[in-house]
Amino acid sequence: MKFKYFNLKYLIEGSIIEISFQDTKNNIMLLDTNNFSKYRFRKPFSFVGGIYYSSPAYFVVPSSGIWYIVIELNKYQKPIQITVNTLQ
Q1: Of 4, 6, 32, 64, which residue is most buried, by most CB within 10 angstroms?
Q2: CATH label, 2-86, candidates 2.40.10, 1.25.40, 2.60.290, 3.40.50
Q3: Tens digits of per-residue pLDDT, 35-50?
């Protein structure tokens, strides 16, 4: 599966992430470094998130560390504009 990702670098527990996207169905995940690696190698992984139908989506960082946002792209989906901001 194709995906687009954003390295959010080091974030403190409780930080709020805002993801804005075109109003299409998107599977959006927040992953730590270990789970991002597992995701890329198609191994079982854990994440925060799910399918979102409207923008924006918000995530609260569960623990301090390096985090990634992953958006899975449907092979029939047109390219989408995505904006990721750290609010806190």
Answers
A1: 32
A2: 2.60.290
A3: 999 999 999 999 999 9
